[in-house]
Design brief:
Rossmann fold, 2 domains, nine-stranded mixed beta sheet, seven-stranded parallel beta sheet, 37% helix, globular, binds glutamine
């Protein structure tokens, strides 16, 4: 087992997740089997109970783990699905240690951070490496070096490097080189301090990755090399990129792939980036712009919808259509007629997942605009449930229709609590979660998009379409086109509309740069087709 640790210094939010994912991609491009583990030094057991404004979106894995959004980056960059064990939190580690203590596993010993918590961390990292059959495990340590929270993890990794010996483990430290002052001078002092901090706990970085707005000059690299005790070729610069998928090539251009191979004593085969480069070239050359309206309630923080944004990047890199996302705060929409007028001109509308009553009125309006205006619509999870409510109100003539999430006592519960949820009291990890099999109706829009009738998609919800309304929906044109094994409604689509589709699951979690998700592809294709009918002068390559 070889281990590559990625730590961060100076500040958080440097794109350590993208850096780690890209380092993984570098190794994978050389035919090396890799996997990635994220350490989140918070006491929550998982990310499921956190508001998206705290750490961005909650990313759901096949096994139902509600994970940090970096797991999504790893899956997208590696093109691999990961399990929940790949997101290690302080909460999980402490829970395991305390359970062992209660069982009496420590045989009368005093249970301490060192060696018991650190021991549990090392054991878990080894276990993941074995289970994944990976030659190299990348371990990203969340937070910033110097934080009290991350100390036990860094200590455990230091011990592990001693146990594994020479050439088996390497440390990458990601730092910020800010550009300050009236002449825009790049400053290395914060990097020097954070490397000193790391060395104080016994870790000597092998590679320093400097983040900043512009590329580091050779002089600055030499300076960091001198002060931080790494060779100049191991000081790597990642300037801000227009698209995160450029980062592996930025690293490759500075010789990082070969350097890692040397540090970890791995064979340095020539890397293969053929498909990756083709994706980037198509993305950069995109034309025929379309505007997709995103109507949600966490629009202030784009990380709350990270997987959606990435899914559209994947489509752009595949179809060569320039996709502009325009964000609408669902709460503002009913208050502002000019926003509504603007929304009517969107080429496609997407209402993503969400919770609670705030913003529901605005989402209903957006869906009404899509339904009556023939604008391609994709409703995901809450955006699917609310589409059913909008249809019940607008077409079935049930003005009081709603979800019991908004009004538990409603007389028209078009969306209601899942039966098994009625008995659950705890909020953590208790939704209907993870990959579930869905059977699609042959010939339906959704089956045509996938090109098959059996799919697996990831879920995260407590409520469902009330089966009591399904016949009335169908009679009025909104038909069930996907069902779970137990008969639950998984998708609805509207007859006579060019593209009006709602799905109970989250397709955004499965989209990858090399395999864009069929529903996102379908939405964009429909938007392009509609636009071409409106102005036939501009044919697009996407539809050919
Ligand atoms: N709030 C809805 C539910 O729990 C939708 C969840 C979601 O959009 N992820 O069913």
């Amino acid at each position: 087992m070889k281990v590559l640790v990625v730590s961060g210094g100076v500040i958080s939010g440097l794109g350590k997740g993208i850096t780690t994912s890209s380092l993984g991609r570098l190794l994978k491009a050389r035919g090396i089997a890799v996997t990635i583990v994220k350490i989140d030094p918070y006491l929550n057991v998982d990310a499921g109970t956190m508001n998206p404004y705290q750490h961005g979106e909650v990313f759901v894995l096949d096994d139902g783990t509600e994970a940090d959004l970096d797991l999504g980056n790893y899956e997208r960059f590696l093109g691999q699905s990961l399990s929940g064990s790949h997101n290690l939190t302080t909460g999980k580690i402490y829970r395991a240690v305390i359970e062992k203590e209660r069982r009496g596993d420590y045989l009368g010993n005093t249970v301490q951070i060192i060696p018991h918590v650190t021991g549990e961390i090392k054991r878990t990292v080894r276990e993941i490496a074995e289970a994944a059959g990976a030659e190299v495990v990348l371990v990203e340590v969340g937070g910033t070096v110097g934080d009290i929270e991350s100390m036990p993890f860094l200590e455990a990794l230091r011990e592990l490097s001693y146990e594994l010996g020479e050439g088996e483990m390497a440390f990458v430290h990601t730092t910020l080189v800010p550009v300050v002052g009236p002449v825009g001078e790049a400053k290395t002092k914060p990097t020097q301090h954070s490397v000193r901090e790391l060395r104080a706990i016994g870790i000597r970085p092998n590679l320093i990755i400097a983040r900043g707005p512009a590329p580091l000059t050779a002089d600055l690299k030499a300076k960091i090399s001198l002060f931080c005790d790494v060779p100049p070729e191991a000081v790597i610069s990642i300037p801000d990129q227009p698209l995160i998928y450029e980062v592996p090539l930025v690293l490759e251009a500075q010789g990082v792939g070969a350097l890692l191979a040397r540090l970890l004593r791995l064979p340095d085969r020539p890397p293969d980036y053929a498909a990756w480069k083709e994706f980037l070239a198509t993305y950069r050359g995109a034309t025929s712009p379309i505007e997709v309206a995103m109507v949600g309630k966490y629009t202030e923080l784009k990380d709350a919808y990270l997987s959606h944004i990435e899914a559209f990047h994947h489509v752009q890199g595949h179809l060569g259509v320039e996709i502009g996302l325009r964000w609408y705060d669902a709460e503002d929409l009913p208050k502002n007629p000019s926003l509504e007028a603007r929304l009517r001109r969107a080429d496609a509308i997407l209402v993503p997942g969400g919770f609670g009553s705030r913003g529901v009125e605005g989402k209903l309006r957006a869906i009404g605009i899509a339904r009556t205006g023939g604008i391609p619509y994709l409703g995901i999870c809450y955006g699917f449930q609310i589409a059913a409510v909008e249809f019940a109100r607008g077409v079935l003539g049930l003005p009081h229709a709603t979800t019991t999430e908004v009004d538990p006592a409603t007389e028209e519960p078009v969306v209601c609590l899942l039966e098994e949820q009625k008995l659950r009291a705890e909020l953590g990890g208790t939704m209907r979660l993870g990959a579930q099999r869905v059977t699609l109706a042959a010939g339906s829009l959704v089956a045509r998009l996938y090109g098959k009738t059996e799919i697996w998609e990831r879920h995260r919800h407590r409520f469902e379409i009330n089966p009591a309304y399904v016949d009335r929906f169908a009679a009025a044109g909104l038909t069930v086109s996907g069902r779970a094994v137990d008969g639950r409604v998984e998708s609805l689509e509207l007859a006579g509309h060019p593209f009006f589709l709602g799905v109970q699951y989250h397709p955004e979690f499965l989209s990858r740069p090399e395999a864009p998700h069929p529903l996102f592809l379908g939405l964009v294709r429909a938007a392009v087709a509609r636009k071409e009918v409106a102005s036939p002068a501009a044919p697009s390559p996407a539809i050919a």
